[in-house]
């Protein structure tokens, strides 16, 4: 663990703040901030308290944890406005619900003649404790985003509409390499980004609270993770 690395990480998360800007906020010199980040000097307790208050983190987290874990797997942390779209969804509770739900949605896309479907997904939090603890099941929902010019005739699929919404978003490279570590880490990193920049989680009924989207570019797998913000 390095307090200096944590400070550099938090500074960059705060809209890519420069050392000069942080020095001005803390009323110290840029050289002092540089020494803090290089671990050649340690902030006095009053400055340490100010840093924690400014970056909205606890003293314990700042001093004792590695806030940069898995940082290399993530890129392009941003606030993004997602335009309104319509979708149909399929939710599954099983031992492997992601595969089941995504397969079903891709079958929908094939039947509708959509050659390159845009599929998103999110955890479906309605599994019972018996399903979770005894049968090791969990829930997942996958959704097919409908092209604007598509007319859906299948009455068994309810068309839902997501309004134009702002999201905090992050891109993961090779998400399948360590999915049970990297993907939760992405949500944690986004939460830190939102906390540092004063963004509040939007939990309106007609808004997707969070979701994931996988895609491939030039043979490289990526995943974008989104959390709705007010």
Question: Can you describe this structure?
Answer:
With 230 residues, the chain is of the alpha+beta class. The chain folds into 3 domains: 3-68, Orthogonal Bundle (434 Repressor (Amino-terminal Domain)), CATH 1.10.260; 86-161, no CATH class; 163-228, no CATH class. Helices cover 36% and strands 27% of the residues. It is built from 8 helices and 8 strands, in the order αααααββαβαβββαββ. It has helices spanning 3-13, 19-26, 30-38, 45-54, 59-64, 97-111, 129-133, 179-196, and strands at 74-82, 85-94, 118-123, 138-145, 160-162, 165-173, 210-217, 220-228. It has an 8-stranded antiparallel sheet, covered by helices on one side. Strand 7 (210-217) and strand 8 form a beta hairpin. Helix 1 (3-13) crosses helix 3 and helix 2 crosses helix 3 (30-38). The chain is elongated and about 65 Å long.
């Amino acid at each position: 663990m390095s307090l200096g690395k944590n400070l550099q990480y938090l500074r960059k998360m705060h809209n890519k703040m420069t050392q000069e800007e942080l020095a001005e906020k803390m009323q110290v010199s840029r050289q002092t901030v540089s020494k803090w980040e290089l671990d050649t000097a340690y902030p006095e307790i009053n400055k340490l308290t100010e840093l924690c208050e400014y970056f909205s983190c606890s003293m314990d987290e700042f001093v004792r944890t590695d806030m940069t874990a898995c940082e290399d797997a993530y890129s392009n942390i941003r606030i993004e406005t997602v335009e309104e779209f319509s979708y149909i969804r399929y939710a599954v509770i099983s031992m492997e619900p992601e595969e089941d739900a995504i397969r079903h949605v891709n079958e929908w896309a094939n039947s509708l003649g959509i050659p390159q479907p845009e599929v998103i997904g999110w955890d479906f939090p309605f599994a019972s404790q018996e399903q979770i603890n005894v049968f090791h099941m969990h829930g997942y929902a996958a959704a097919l985003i409908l092209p604007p010019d598509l007319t859906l005739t299948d009455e068994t699929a309810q068309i839902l509409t997501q309004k134009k919404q702002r999201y905090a978003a992050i891109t993961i490279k090779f998400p399948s390499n360590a999915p049970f570590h990297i993907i939760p880490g992405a949500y944690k990193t986004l939460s830190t980004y939102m906390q540092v920049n004063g963004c509040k989680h939007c939990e309106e009924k007609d808004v997707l609270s969070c979701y994931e989207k996988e895609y491939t570019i030039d043979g490289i797998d990526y995943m974008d993770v989104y959390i709705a913000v007010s």
